[in-house]
Structures are given as structure tokens and as C-alpha cells.
Design brief:
Elements (H helix, E strand, L loop, with lengths): L7 E6 L6 H7 L4 E4 H11 L2 H12 L5 H9 L5 E5 L5 H8 L3 E9 L2 H9 L1 E3 L6 E3 L26 H25 L2 E5 L4 H13 L3
Parallel strand pairs: 1-3, 1-4, 2-3, 4-7
Antiparallel strand pairs: 5-6
Helix pairs in contact: 2-3, 6-7
This protein binds zinc ion (ZN).
Length: 210
């Protein structure tokens, strides 16, 4: 009996605000699965899953594996880009039985730079557009360019939460980096680089098999 072909997956590893989302938007041909976006959608809908995750996310803690993995799996398609998953070796081990991972990109960041970037982040609650008061300001101050909605700051985009999130993130993720490095499919990116340069590196790695 032949098994069904598993989804072909690209993985983006990196803390929130490292620019993964921006690069994911630019990469065509892959369905973008962002655990952050999926969770926020659950929270907004007020589902039991959403409610149980809400408190943890606001404190900068991690959401249990079992919840995340079932959420991810329900969004599988033949070509997927996983953004923000896996975050731990346990998740990576679960994932490798479910999908074929062709390439893993690690968005490496400087923590102080990240704090500056995230505390300046503003989002549109209507169309979900993301702005940055320093790097990508809206044309009209504090207002969405696309739909004219006033921009808001996400509750978890404050310095204390960000630093706590980074401590949790780094201790959990370091072993994951080694896990993929050993498999020979990891590419480290300097997340401080400009988005165009990063997009080119990612594109070449995926589409020009060297
Ligand atoms: Zn908008």
C-alpha cells in the first residue's frame, strides 16, 4: 500500500518580529501557515483552544504542543511554509513524520534590535497590515494606508513581555537549531539584513538547487 505523499514544507524559525512574516508574504507558491496568526484567530473567535492559549501568550509563555500540532495539521496542503513552528525538538520530531522538509531558515536576531523593532510595531485590526513607526511608517500618522483604520499596538508588544518571550524562546529553540543543522538543511539568516537581500537568499536556496 502506498502512503499519501506528505506535504512539502519550508520552515521559518525565528522569534516574533524577526521578519519571518514579511519574508513569508514574499515567498510565492507555498501556503503560509503562521502559528501566531492561527492562534490569534482562535482567540478572536473565542474558541476553547483560543481561551486556553490567551493567558499564556499574554504572559509570553509557550502554548502546549498538543494544541499547536492539531491546529497546524488542520491547515496542511501540498506546499506549505511553516512560520513559527516547530519551536522545540519535540515538535520537530512530530513534524518530520508528517511532512517532507526541504529547507529550514533560521532568522537570527539581536535582542536589543528586536525590542526596538517590536515596541515600534503597529497593526491594523481590520486588514491585519503590519507597520513600524521607524522602518515602515504609514503615510498618515497612526492610520492604515489600505483601509484607513486607526493602528493599534498589540498587547504583547511591550519591552518586558518581549524580553521574557526571548528568554523562553532562546532556551527552547537552541536545541532545535542543532537538530536541523545536523540534518544539513539549515540556513542561518542575519535578520538585521534588509528584506530584499533576505528574500533573494531565501529564493535562491529554495528554487536554485545548488
Ligand atoms: Zn488596514
Amino acid at each position: 500500500m502506498r502512503k499519501e505523499t506528505p506535504p512539502n514544507a519550508i520552515v521559518f524559525i525565528g522569534p516574533p518580529g524577526s521578519g519571518k512574516g514579511t519574508q513569508a508574504e514574499r515567498l510565492k507558491g507555498y501556503q503560509h501557515i503562521s502559528t501566531g496568526d492561527l492562534l490569534r484567530a482562535e482567540i478572536q473567535k473565542g474558541t476553547p483552544l483560543g481561551l486556553s492559549c490567551k493567558e499564556k501568550i499574554e504572559k509570553g509563555e509557550m502554548v502546549p504542543d498538543s494544541l499547536i500540532s492539531s491546529l497546524i495539521e488542520s491547515h496542511f496542503s501540498p506546499q506549505i511554509l511553516l512560520d513559527g513552528y516547530p519551536r522545540t525538538v519535540a515538535q520537530a520530531e512530530w513534524l518530520q513524520d508528517k511532512v517532507h522538509i526541504s529547507q529550514v531558515f533560521f532568522f537570527d536576531v539581536d535582542v536589543d534590535q528586536l525590542v526596538e523593532r517590536l515596541t515600534n510595531r503597529r497593526v491594523c485590526s481590520t486588514c491585519k497590515c503590519v507597520y513600524n513607526l521607524v522602518f515602515k511608517p504609514p503615510v498618515k500618522p497612526f492610520t492604515c494606508d489600505k483601509c484607513d483604520t486607526p493602528l493599534i499596538q498589540r498587547a504583547d508588544d511591550n519591552e518586558q513581555v518581549i524580553r521574557n518571550r526571548m528568554r523562553v524562546y532562546q532556551s527552547e529553540t537552541a536545541p532545535l537549531i542543532d537538530f536541523y543543522k545536523k540534518k544539513g538543511i539549515l540556513t542561518r539568516l542575519d535578520a538585521g539584513n534588509n528584506p530584499d537581500a533576505l528574500a533573494k537568499i531565501i529564493h535562491d536556496k529554495i528554487f536554485k538547487k545548488s
